[in-house]
Amino acid sequence: MKNKVNTDKKKKKSDLTYNILLVIFALIFIGSAAYLFQYYYASHKSEKKVDELQELIVEDDTPAGTEADGTPVAPQEPEFVEINGVRIQKKYEKIYERNNHFIGWLEIKGTKVNYPVVQTPEDEEYYLRRDFDGEKSTAGTLFADTSSDIEKPSDNILIYGHNMKAGTMFHDILQYDSEDFYKEHKYIQFNTIYGDGTYEVIAAFREEIREVDYGGFKYYQFFDAQTEEEFTDYVSNCQARTNYQTDRTAKYGDKLITLSTCSYHADEGRYVVVAVKVSE
Asked: Which CATH number do you get for residue 230?
């Protein structure tokens, strides 16, 4: 009889442990599901807002080419307007009025990279977890480093963006690890409020953000070259880290953009794409 009582106690204890574990696992599952839902919903909401912003761009649809009699028609010069003392391209007037942190639009055709870019000199990472309208968002907004001069412009403009698991923001730039992808997506369009620009990719590589006193290559600290040697060193370092040969390089006097996003090959890993301006 005593053995039966002990067996019943052990069974009840085992059942209790099983039920507790079942509840814990259920809570973990529910919590994970809720997190994933919130993450992908936030990403969807962010993309929908970007679509709304695109509709505010007023592109000039006057075609370049020739008249019926063969007379050449010159491309339409961009129109400018002045808003609060800032002279900007008219096509971005409505977006700029909505948010004067807006500095331009970045697009890589054939990818999901097609987004507004902002810059906040007073707080560089203000849009790290905020959407274009300043509302909380895990996707954030593409933003330029405060050391980048858009109007001048500086030798290099550095733009940051999240590597979203939903495949949005800068997630697609990691595909430049493939030479085939590079060959099909050589060009990046970065049109600012001051003028348009087409850039050709010259490097794509993995790096790490390291301790302050690290003496190695710090791509995230290059903006204006004091000498030709400094510019050449930056380009050479970028291309040496690229696992294939690109069709173009850059020389002193050229203008660059550098795109940077998180990469999970290291604790503070980054994936970087560098491109040189080839046309207005």
From this structure: 2.40.260.10
